[in-house]
Amino acid sequence: MTTLSILWFVLIFVLIIGYFALDGFDLGTGVLYPFLGKNERSKKIMMRAIGPVWDGNEVWLLTAGGALFAAFAPAYATSFSGFYLAIMLVLMGLIVRAVAIGFGGHGESSRLCDGAFFVGSLLPALLFGVAVGNVIAGVPLNANGDYIGTFFALLTPFALACGVLGLVHMMLQGACWLAAKAPEGDPLQVQAKNLRKPLALISLVMFLICTVLFKMTVVPNSSVGMDMTIPAIIAAVAYLASLLYIAFVSGGKDFLFPVIAGIGCAALCIVWAATSFPYFIPASNDPTLSITIASAAGSDLTLTVMTIIAAIGVPLVLLYHVLVYRAFAGRVTDEDLHEGY
Hints:
It is a single chain. The chain has helices at 3-36, 40-50, 54-57, 59-71, 73-82, 84-104, 111-137, 157-181, 187-218, 229-248, 256-276, 293-296, 300-327, and strands at residues 279-281, 291-292. The chain is mostly helical. A two-stranded antiparallel sheet has the order 1-2.
């Protein structure tokens, strides 16, 4: 492993953190949509709360995928070949969701748009976690780095638990965001605020279940070593602290809670990175077939050019997000609801 390859392993996880921390509340809002959007006003508030930012948040996913392809092409190829059906379902969900937001923003909501928005949010929120669980546990690979199992073989108890954990945490992010964006005292704002504590506690339980399943089913059957204990413990403590804050701190400004939920999301991604390092995808059948940083890294020239581009591009993306979030800061107002989503 070279310094540049390790740097890009870290940078890709930074991009993944950016996506899950930001687009997580968008997806969570979509999952909560049929439960909190009881009337046309509530639906418009929910759409307006994410309308100015949801598409920009997805830039982080595209950037992470592009960076993985350029810096670690074999890991990219194995991921997309092994999880092809799951990835297609995620992409279909994101496409349907985007269409639902686009059409729903030009008039009264319809059952078709409402259903598409919900399903298009639910699929990625659940399947991302399932994919992460399989990446941590490892999958059977052949000598070409191709996944040799079936789709249903990916639905292990640990992977499904990770999927539910990801889903619940995104719902928590969505509830925190809606409580901060809906008009003060609005029934939607009150409902979202009341959801924060139970969702935080459910997320805590799911994290503990994932930890137990990891120790019981993944570690004994792993073909590779997993020794990044200290970073994982630090990140886990940060995650637990964020959940406990959301669950038991009733005071404070509502805008703090989406930030705390985002920190918890970042902590989960750090646990993932710390547990996986130096592997991208462990081979459960033969450790020599595993996709590692060293075996998947591109040339030093490629990584050097990418580093220069990232040094220029990432600050610009961050600046864009700062400007957009500042421009649309504050709660949704009645005037906003007449401007479209």
